[in-house]
Amino acid sequence: MSKSTRIILIFLLAGFYSVAQEKWNFAEVDKKSYELFTQKKWAELAGFAEEARSHGIDFFYLQARSGIAAFNLKKYIKAAGFFQQAWESDRNFEWLQEYLYYSLVYSGRYLEATKYAQFFSENMQQKIGFKPKKLTRIAAEAGYSFNPDFDELTHAGHHEMAGVGNDYGEAFYLKNYHFETVDLSHRVAPGMSINHSFTFLGINREEQVYWGELYSFPLNNKQMQYYINPVFVAGKKWYVSTSANLIWGDYSYYAGGFNQQKYFHNGTVYFRDLVFTASTWFYTGNFAPGIELDYGNFNNDGFGQYSAWVTYYPFSNARFYVTPRVYFKSDAETGFGYNTFGISGGAQLGPVHVYGQYLTGEMKNFIEPAGYVIANFPGRSTQKIMGSLYFPMGKKYQFVVRYINQDIFEKYNVYTNGTVSNSMEYKYIKHTLTAGLSWDF
């Protein structure tokens, strides 16, 4: 290469470098991003701002414009991150306060939005309807669960399959149950809410006893539950939740006796179960990982349950999300080990929100997320499928319908001299339909 050629190349490279430096400086980035902002070229603005940051250029208005671009592209999670950065620099702009608030609300982070709202101007607080303490939600839901295999099971002749013979055979077959739930949520401080729920269950079973001949007894059981769940924002993007679920009620049974001849007497067992949970999660980009610790005591048997999950928002908003979750359990019978895998997710389809859940594993005395739903029924389950549809009814009301399909395994027990000497497991599918209405204040 000749000397003159080298000189020309040096000048050309210097020129390119000079042009690049002119483009990627504060003044040029501010000018170009403002032009794209005024032209409402949101996708182009978002790309340009990202490239500017890769060159080490970032400032308040670039963060704000990036947030507004992401907000208009319906990428509310990304928008919230930019507005939070801008908020750290200047909190006085009402337009920034409003954008920050709604980007968090549309990201599903309402509690975090209220924590920021306490620092908004009085005018903005009135505009968004913010109050430090407030009743936020009331809901009522009722459901009916039934066993379509009930007649088949009660006529299956399990006493013959189990080989009862001259011993005593017994089973409790679920027929159906109904439940009614009332929920109430209220904000006790900015960034902290407490949820309450009370549920009544009326359960119908049939006890079947074989003792020389077949006897059947209809049983009506009842169960009450009170659930309390504080949730609070512990830090930027960091949430903590605890809960207690108190369960009490009674179930009846018939037991055989012998006094010169066979007879049956009715008895009632009163039970008190409880569940404590503690969970925490945080938001990082389009992901929200978390862990939960649960302690349950059912029928005087204590156990621990542990789970970890990550929620993924592929479109940077709450209109579509998916949550894989793995559960572990520790008890005196089986020790510590893998228990269940679950996956859930939701999508906004026009005005309707769809939510689904699938669980598979060994679910005996199983605690579902946040300790709100528990499986303290007799027996075990290996699969549960749930689908929910949420329909808005005006600005403050929402109607929900659900369907749940769950397999249940229970046992027919054979007693010899009052002790279980043999048993056989039977299976049925439990179907549940529910409907409810909520009112957001």
Short description:
This protein has helices spanning 3-23, 26-38, 42-54, 60-72, 76-89, 94-106, 110-117, 122-128, 150-154, 158-161, and strands at 134-146, 168-189, 192-210, 214-235, 238-258, 262-282, 287-298, 301-312, 320-331, 335-349, 352-363, 366-367, 374-375, 381-393, 397-416, 419-440.
Describe the overall structure:
The protein is an alpha+beta fold and 441 residues long. The chain folds into two domains: 126 residues, Alpha Horseshoe (Serine Threonine Protein Phosphatase 5, Tetratricopeptide repeat); 307 residues, Outer membrane protein transport protein (OMPP1/FadL/TodX) (Porin). The protein is 25% helix and 54% strand. The protein is built from ten helices and 16 strands. Strands 1, 2, 3, 4, 5, 6, 7, 8, 9, 10, 11, 14, 15 and 16 form a 14-stranded antiparallel sheet that branches. Strand 9 and strand 10 form a beta hairpin. 28% of the residues are buried.
